[in-house]
Amino acid sequence: MKKKGNILIGVxxxxxxxxxxxxxxxxxxxxxxxxxxxxxxxxxxxxxxVFKELTGQPVYLEMFSLSNQxxxxxxxxxxxxxxxxxxxxxxxxxxxxxxxxxxxxxSVVCALSSQKPVLLAPAMNEGMWRNPLIQDNLFxxxxxxxxxxxxxxxxxxxxxxxxIGRMPEPGEIYKKAKALLKKI
Length: 184
Ligand SMILES: Cc1cc2nc3c(=O)[nH]c(=O)nc-3n(C[C@H](O)[C@H](O)[C@H](O)COP(=O)(O)O)c2cc1C
Prior knowledge:
Blueprint: E1 6-11, H1 19-29, E2 33-38, H2 48-55, E3 59-60, H3 72-79, E4 82-88, H4 90-97, H5 104-111, E5 118-122, H6 126-130, H7 132-142, E6 147-149, E7 153-156, E8 162-166, H8 170-182
Parallel strand pairs: 1-2, 1-4, 2-3, 4-5, 5-6
Antiparallel strand pairs: 7-8
Helix pairs in contact: 1-2, 1-8, 3-5, 4-7
Flavin mononucleotide binds at residues 12-16, 39, 41-42, 87, 89-92, 123-124, 128.
């Protein structure tokens, strides 16, 4: 079978993380190879086992592991044709914008070649989204040539209020990712 592409999804600690199961299924149904990495906070929202079963691959969680032969932040960044960070939390958005590499996910993003597309799907409460520091950090990310930001939508948020901050539906993320892959 013709190789369709290696997709690396990074999941942060946010309510929208459950939607990544649907996103994973869309890629897998079309024959893409998929690996999932998670921040420590993401594990509080969704169990790694779900992604392990969906993808048939290990789920990447730890920066430091005695059972791994290689430096996983490098091998994962080399393996990926396209990286998607969804949901992208306010915390990880800010860390990525500042080049902070304090867990596996942030280290992989930092190690990715500038030739590889990175799709970022921020999702958060409207107050966090409108915070000038978050907007400043977002501005920095928009300056990076290989980064594409999928802006959050207006709608009902997990905190029950209505506002900007909802992660776009998995189908939208999938469509955008495929468009980016076509350009490679
Ligand atoms: C119930 C709950 C829901 C949360 N939802 C979000 C969210 O949607 N977006 C966000 O940026 N942070 C959210 N947070 C806060 C993050 O989980 C927290 O900032 C965490 O440190 C993010 O870590 P990470 O960026 O390493 O994944 C939520 C926290 C809780 C307790």
